[in-house]
Write a structure and sequence with these properties.
Layout lengths: L44 H7 L15 E3 L1 H11 L1 H22 L4 E11 L26 E15 L1 H68 L5 H36 L7 E3 L13 H11 L1 H21 L5 E12 L6 E11 L7 H67 L5 H36 L2 H8 L4
Parallel strand pairs: 1-4
Antiparallel strand pairs: 2-3, 3-5, 5-6
Amino acid sequence: MKKTALTLILAINAIAWGQTAGPLGYSISTPHPINPAGGTTTPSAQATQQQNPYLGSVPASNTGTKIRLSLKGAIEHGLHYNLGLVETTQASADARAERMRALAALLPQLSADARQGYENLSLKEIGIKLPPIPGLPGLPPTTGAFGYQDARIIASQSIYNGEFRNQYRARKSQEQASALSIQDSRDVVVFAVGTAYLQVLASAARVDTAKAQLASAVELDRQTANRVKNEVAPEIDSIRAQVEHQSTEQRLTNATNQLQKDKLTLARIIGLAIDQDFELTDAMTYRPLEGLTTESATTEALNSRSDLRSAQASVEAASFNVRSQKAQRLPVVSVSANYGGGGPNIGNFNQVYTLTGDVSVPIFTGGRIRADIEQAQEDLARKKAEYEDLKGRVAYDVRVAWLDVNASESSVKVAQRNKSLADQALVQSQDRYTNGVTNYLEVVQAQEAVAQASENYIESLFSYDVSMISLARAIGGAEAKLSNYLGGK
């Protein structure tokens, strides 16, 4: 069964609730499609970065030395530098700021105010008018210029505001949802790094296989040339040997080129400098999955998946938002007070203060409150539908990953047996050719069979390990489960 990282296109997760997955968007849920081998210049590097930040990073500086990188070390590096996780963390900081802003509306507000004023009041304007008194001059038209100073401490407190109280609860739930999104993003980074790491291992295995095949082709080319020279084999055998030699060299060149490209992709995901020299220390392994069933995996996923818990927190936030909009119809009670001094100058201050209690009741708002409530209810209904859909998708993800694990496990066993048989067939063909029983065409065919069997084995082993990572991602908590699933890596 062939399956490479190029086909691992993953669906849209519930982190970005405004996005919807396409009809073909099946597989393990992630905030963005994951394709570790995807190019970065089509249509532009910036467009690719915006499309999927989990394939980007904030690169570190080149250390100047060769780095030995384990899978665990690569994941730790990715969790520190991956762009997708950095952006999710910043989004969580925004949610925390919104919660603090909502809380501030419920807490006492304290401020200080000081002023120096100069005025000239019109007595007629403010309605001061005395009847004329014989023998006394009338009032002047203005008070004349005068100055005064005033300094006060001002405090205000909301006693009851249902709208603000429920807004705070909604923001608090949104902050919780954002924090859970960070944990889900960490699982996405683990999946992306693990897949890219395994892709490099698979490419390295292809390079090693190509080198071994090239060494065998070189030796058979030399033997065939000697046999043709000694006139014990036809010249066409030498031509076939040269063609096989050149084909094997090209296969090695292609495999080496792909290995370097896959290493660059891994470096971009985990945040290594693009010119950083590194080598991988782990290897692809086969370890049967034990102690887990589909039912237990599904139950664990429904309880531990961070994106599902984040969706539940978003439903709670939407519910509090509905309450907040309905509370606009309720009275708002608040108090305010100020205390200080005032007078013509600071040396002649008198004590001044104000204490007020306010009750505000909306009577007619032109239907604005009703519109706000309906909009909030629609948002709540959408959040609930998305949550229920996500529950079904979580169960779906586990089932699909489980099927992939079983199919890949069977594929590994078959490919391993086929590789062993192909190696034996090649040895027998070489012996038959050396003893003159057959021609070189049989050897070429046996070599091609070995190459194909080796490729199938590498693909099957890669597919199995990626399926294990997918299962860890589907259940949730991939960061902790990966070492157990991949044999203690």
